[in-house]
Design goal:
By secondary structure, this protein is of the alpha+beta class. The chain has two domains: 248 residues, Bira Bifunctional Protein, Domain 2 (BirA Bifunctional Protein, domain 2), CATH 3.30.930; 90 residues, Anticodon-binding domain (Rossmann fold), CATH 3.40.50. It has 16 helices and 16 strands. The protein has an eight-stranded mixed sheet, sandwiched between helices. Strands 13-12-14-15-16 form a five-stranded mixed sheet, sandwiched between helices. It has a three-stranded antiparallel sheet with strand order 2-4-3. Helix 13 links the parallel strand 12 and strand 13. Helix 1 packs antiparallel against helix 5. The longest helix is centred in the N-terminal third of the chain and has 17 residues. The chain is elongated. 39% of the residues are buried. It binds adenosine monophosphate (AMP). The site of adenosine monophosphate (AMP) has 16 residues, from strand 6, strand 10, strand 11 and helix 12.
Length: 420
């Protein structure tokens, strides 16, 4: 170990586990790529105001969890705690919404940073794959995103996840509900901080995990009873489309989520094998966000799925991904001359598109064969002085154990043929 360690709340992805992370990112993004979502990448940091305005001044993310910094030039920046505000900012900046085709459908993958209390499944640096569909109000779009996330999790072999669904209403009906809820909450026996929250974001109080708070919330007014007709109809349509797709979900009227920008459809994916950090992904509609960050009216919907927690969910379910070996051929030279010759063969194989690796460092046959085994290679190529004198290399099929001498000049072509 060096003098240094990964900072608190972070961890390194190293082989072989890192391969699972790559596969998870790939599996989550595949259904998006097949459904008209284009790839977007934005900076790891943004003007701090973007998140303050976008995510919400009163949210935990903004008040407690943001990594902020002042540059030497005096700019106030924050490491991105989430993806939606940045993606919308970038789409507006590039005028993607003016190019004609709405919705603008985008997907992304990257690192996010929140100064949280670290625990299993909760880190200060984590990884998400996300999707945003910008500029269109259409229940089919909300349904599409939920269906695609379900498809992604299923393609990975996950089964013990549940989809929680709710509607948060819109700018017509939510304020009415908010007031009713505030009136109810003000009469409860709550601590100072929670009392402050009642005034700033009362819906968040519903999300309080403490049993003594939950007990008092039993008779709280229900958002469902306050939804306007348009919101009700919209939500019913989303539910009908998901149901028609055969995707199971649970109505969860307590689902409010920790970001201020959500309107109407909100959803969360939870996994039952993860303990307290059970949310593997979440999202919803954010019809007002564009205006909140100075853009035009652009009703939008999106989600972000956590890669770290998805990997933990796979481990909790005991799902082993079928990750093909990365190396097909492993070359083991015995002696200086063989090293030069086989290194040439390896280069030739790589150029022909065959994944090949080489026993570096002039190790003996036994150690090198161990490495060949560990690499998962289907074939090994072994050559010593006597083989070279005869103009051949020994080609060993690692599955059958069968070994044949192949003319050196034909080795690469023979392997390319066998490997198809
Ligand atoms: P959120 O933006 O909070 O809804 O997060 C979306 C998803 O990102 C969550 O469901 C988690 O899977 C993941 N996530 C959020 N925060 C963390 C964290 N601190 N550590 C690991 N994963 C996280």
């Amino acid at each position: 170990m060096s003098t240094f360690q990964a900072p608190k709340g972070t961890y390194d992805l190293t082989p072989p586990r890192s391969a699972t992370f790559l596969a998870v990112r790939e599996a989550i993004s595949a259904p998006l790529r097949d459904s008209g979502y284009g790839y977007i990448e934005t900076p790891g940091f943004e003007n701090v105001e973007l998140f303050a305005r976008g995510v919400g001044e009163s949210t935990d993310i903004v008040t407690k969890e943001m990594y902020t910094l002042t540059t030497k030039g005096g700019d106030q920046l924050a490491l991105r705690p989430e993806g939606t505000a940045s993606v919308l900012r970038a789409a507006l900046e590039a005028n993607l919404h003016k190019a004609g085709n709405l919705p603008v459908k985008l997907w992304y993958s990257g690192s996010y940073y929140r100064y949280e209390r670290p625990q299993a499944g909760r880190y200060r640096h984590f990884s998400q794959v996300g999707a945003e569909a910008i500029g269109t109000e259409d229940p089919a779009l909300d349904a599409e995103l939920i269906i695609l996330a379900d498809q992604a999790y299923r393609s990975l072999g996950l089964r013990q996840f549940r989809i929680l669904l709710n509607s948060l209403g819109d700018k017509e009906c939510r304020p009415v509900y908010r007031e009713a809820l505030q009136t109810f909450l003000r009469d409860l026996d709550l601590d100072e901080e929670t009392r402050r929250r009642i005034e700033i974001n009362p819906l968040r109080v519903l999300d309080d995990k403490r049993a003594d708070v939950q007990k008092q919330l039993t008779d709280a007014p229900k958002l469902r009873d306050y939804l306007c007709d348009a919101c009700k109809a919209y939500h019913e349509e989303v539910r009908a489309l998901i149901t028609a797709a055969g995707v199971a979900f649970e109505d969860d009227e307590k689902l409010v989520r920790g970001l201020d920008y959500y309107t109407r459809t909100t959803f969360e994916f939870v996994h039952d094998g993860l303990g307290s950090q059970s949310a593997v992904g979440g999202g919803g509609r954010y019809d007002g966000l564009s205006e909140m960050i100075g853009g035009p009216e652009l009703p939008s919907v999106g989600w972000a799925l956590g890669v770290d927690r998805t990997v933990l969910a796979l481990e909790a379910e005991g799902v082993e991904l079928d990750l093909p070996a990365t190396t097909s051929v492993y070359a083991v030279p015995l002696g200086e001359e063989a090293r030069r010759v086989l290194f040439g063969v390896v280069t030739e194989l790589r150029r022909a598109g065959v994944a090949a690796d080489f026993a570096f460092g002039g190790r003996g046959l036994k150690g090198a064969m161990k490495s060949a085994n560990r690499s998962g290679a289907r074939y090994t190529l072994v050559a010593g002085e006597r083989d070279l004198a005869e103009g051949v290399v020994q080609l060993k099929d690692m599955e059958s154990g069968e070994q044949t001498a192949v003319p050196l000049t034909e080795a690469a072509a023979e392997l390319a043929k066998r490997l198809g």
